[in-house]
Amino acid sequence: MAWYAYCIVEQQAVQGGIRARRPVPVEGLKGIADAQIFAYPSGDFSVLVSEYIPTGDLGQKALLQHAHVVSECFKRTTVLPFRFGTVFDTDDALRRAVRFGDGFTVPGATRDVYDRYVSELKKENRPTDNLRFASGFWFLVVSNDPEKTFAEAAEHVIYQVNNYSVWLEAGGLQPLAPHLNDREALRQSGLLQVVDPETAIRMIRDLADTVPITHFYSWTLPPGLPPRWAGTHLELFASKVIPAFR
Fold it and tell me: Total structural domains in the chain?
């Protein structure tokens, strides 16, 4: 049986303090395709899952249902979300995800988020040395002509941000930004950063000085633009930015 995974939580948060050995239904919580949510136990943690039968690509409705489950869990306890579309084919795969899963990823991380993550690890007697902590910017595009590149990408990013915000709000989460009406609103939001290589290096270093990240990431291809568009900027990033961190 395949399982669709939403997040990892503490067992006691969803099972009323009862330590279970088998999947337990989470009362009043439905997931993708209105399937019953189960807490699948492993040690002190549980993976929230629902039975899953692949029927094609997961669409917008599935994304909203995924977001709803995660947001409901955030109201109860600390949550480690899975990426939308995460499916485990077997029970053993689920157990391994809890037993060996490590690291944390969040865009635009602050030191407070990092410190809270470390605190939660300590509460569960999990190791806090050699942590893997990933963060970055929503869009960081490196260009030799930032204004031209911003103009090329702006309408595509506005479309993406506005749609993501609608989906997030429908799932009970915070939008990425107030509705963006034009390029200036996008520029003010800071969600699309198009900079020269030297500025990109400085931005990443400033982030790493504040938050001890071990991995950096960013969106690189706005929807609707061809992959070759991003290729030019990725090559510049690889040749001019990455060497500064080796």
Answer: 2
Rounded Cα gap, residues 35 and 6, in angstroms: 12
Domain that holds residue 22: 2-101
What is the 3-state composition of the chain as percent helix, strand, coil, each rounded to the nearest 5? Answer: 45, 25, 30
What distance lies between CA 119 and its chain's CA centroid? 20
Instruction: Give, in degrees to the nearest 5, the angle at Cα 74 between 68 and 77.
Output: 140
pLDDT of residue 94: 65
Specify whether 93 is located in the same domain as 139.
Answer: no
122 located within any domain = no
- Per residue in 196-228, pLDDT tens? 999 999 999 999 999 999 999 898 889 899 988
Shared-domain flag, residues 7 and 89? yes
28 CB neighbour count, 10 Å cutoff = 7
Mean pLDDT over 2-25 rounds to: 78
pLDDT of residue 157: 96
Q: Bin 40: left if φ > 0, else alpha if -120 < ψ < 50, else beta.
A: beta
Asked if pLDDT for residue 172 goes beyond 90, the answer is no
